[in-house]
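Let us walk through a complete example step by step. Step one is to write down the protein sequence. Step two is to encode the small molecule, zinc ion, as a SMILES string so that its atoms and bonds are unambiguous. Step three, shown after the inputs, is the structure prediction itself.
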Amino acid sequence: MTARRIAIVPHTHWDREWYKSYQDFRLALVDLIDTLIPLLERDASYPHFMLDGQMAVVDDYLEVRPEAEERLRALAAAGRLSMGPWYILMDEFLASGETIVRNLQTGMLRGAAFGGTMDVGYLPDMFGHIAQMPQILRLAGFRDAVVWRGVPSEVTKNAFVWEAPDGSAVRAEYLPVGYGNGAALPDDAKALVTRIADHVQEVGDFLIGDLLCMNGSDHLMPQPGLGRVVAEANGLQDDYRFEITSLQDYLEGTTTDGLVRVRGELRSGFRANMLMGVTSNRVDVKRLGALAERELERRAEPLASLFQPAEAYPARQLELAWQEMVRNSAHDSICACSVDDVVDAVLHRYAEARAIGAGLADRAVKDFARSLAQPGPSVLNPSPRSRAGVVELVVPAEGPPPANVQVLSERTGLPGSMVLDANTVRTVLGMLQGPKISDDAWVQDIRIEEHEEGIDVTLSVGTEEKPNVPIAEAKQDLYTKLGARPDAVVRVAMDQPSTRRIVARTAEVPGYGWASFEAAALAHPVEVSEAGGSVVLGNGLVRVEVDAATGAFALDGVPGYGRIVDDGDLGDSYNYSPPQQDSTVEVPEAVAVRIDERGPVRARVRITGTYVWPDHVGGSSQARAGEHRVDVDTDVELRADDAVVRVTTTFVNPSGDHRVRVHLPLPEPARHSHAESAFTVVTRGLTAEGRADEFGLPTAPAQRFVTAGRLTVAHEGVCEYELVDIDADGARTVALTVLRSTGMLSRLGMAYRPFPAGPLTPVEGLQMRGRRVSLRYALALDCDDPYRLADDVLLPLETVSSLGGGSRPPTGCELAVHGAEVSALHRVGEVLEARVFNPTAQPAVVSFPGRTGWLVDLRGYPLEAFEGSFELRPFGIATARLRDG
Ligand SMILES: [Zn+2]
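Step three: the predicted structure of the complex.
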């Protein structure tokens, strides 16, 4: 019998921030790499170390020790140190598909400066894995993944073939007991042999060949004497051949022969904690992350790519924003299973990225407005699909409003002129710091005329921002004139027309295009009626009836939508867990209904339910105790010619240790849900695999939408959902988690997860007490295109008011794309690049009419040329570089 090879891979697992802040952990990281560099340089018997598959550890170290860069580069070039391929070890479900791709590309690009990254899809600690990960890895040129959590019971060996929905497959090395199976090895050869013999006993049934021994764990230092101990252990016995090596070297000797094939996402808790409750932990982090992703992916990048010159593309600002997004996608960061300092830092990074995205997008929109030939309002469509919709804008108030327009507010023009003394004029002018008076009032011109009786100042105010209005010069001119004539009378004339803010429906606007605004005729106007104490919103396409007793509403006659259900949660940041004596609050003490808008374009009602929620879970009885009165506002909106019901649920959270969900009945019972995940829609059943150490709670994340039993829910931010009210026919309700509130990073002895998943640290912020919690979602019955629904709800048409004078025609489109969903449209250098995916089970023809270009992989290597269109396999992802048209 030949000796079994024990492939020891020294490494560390570096959570950049978690139960300590980034800076705290970095102090230790600097110590680690300060120790590691000389160890590798002087000790040839310690041939290799793996820097956790993420480049962030290298950058974080070099920020402190820039002088060490050459030594790190030399070790990497010599194959002694492996880096990347990721920039950070992200959570796969909570970040968007695009963020995952940018993370990988950033890591590989940064690693290129050190001679390249490890070509392994190393995913050691992620809380489950997305369905499309094998395809992403293949598109980056990888053949291997390494995984631990989420692997289902059907996998019984230490490797399997993992397939994406498009059929792309990688060999997945499975770490049955995690990435620390060889952590803290004994410093004694005999003890090492015993330890490995015990471990082989433990995992022997899994082994199909060599034993991969991962020598490291969370924030662990390298073991300096390892080379000597290994040599001695090899001299002691013939059963095992110990070797210190790299993950790549270990994987080189493996095959996929005879391995079981697993397709799709990995979300089983059969052997390791899935920690599915992170999706609903600190919901504010998830929602802000989604807002930032949308500003960057769906507004800033496409708008700057299409409506600004290629050479003006704000590449560096976008790179800075993406750096914040990628850092935040780290599993302990976005999951917020962290102390408050860390969560604050995550929120701050998202706010920064969002501000960069919004600022760049707004600049592109302004450039677009200036480029129009004709003056007046226009509608810009930031989505790739042609669509009509409801917009709000400010227009001159001329005559009575037409029947197809709904007036929200009126502003009467200011009186023609007033006479002021010099001091008052100075005060007024001091307040005018720029052309902006309000969001829809701009100084467009300022004229000063001096004559014998005094000085005339004329301000022209309009709804459009006009560039280069010489306000500072005019002020200076006036101050000079007032200085010479301190007693002069100043007549200020404000030339401001009356305006009104309206809401109206526009006709179809081309995808990535624009059209001058014209209020469309309403085929299905919205009406609000009040009869017998109940309020009904209807437009002939869908009917909403508010139930003043329960605070819920009926949708096309099916009652119970928007029901707020509060129960106890004695879990932690990782897992929901019910207290021993749970109680549920789902009936409001009082309900008030207020009509805010009455149509014909848009109708809104606010349902305020007053509930009495317990304050906390207390004592050994684990009963809910104390009470708070809380108002939960549910705003329900219906629009003309639109069968979608838009809802926002808002409250200020008074309580701890609880979970708040909104229940939405399914018009038909369902045995499956279909939820958006990165680059695809995944189908999930009613149960989840678990084990005694972690209950298989079938809650799951949806990126922007989930469909079940004829109901599609589009929502803002990754949302946790569960199919509930299950009987013999299936589930009757989908529950969306609005808030989960716990005060512990991790906890011991929970009903649903008895052993801790992290430090037992109380973290007050995880309770979210005193915070305003808001969930925006939309409901559609029998929706045939949930991606369209998500865009309509979350990526509205934008309006601009132009002064004209440019060269752009009144309607048009900058880029047409058909046949696929667009994940990204941005510039790489000055080249326009689109990433698209086919979410269907049929081959698609993706067309970019009038454009030629190249398909490239995720490293940017050309795959094939195309002219106008190319075929995309079912569930395929493609990246196209386009020549400017
Ligand atoms: Zn980790």
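Step four is interpretation. The mean pLDDT is 95.
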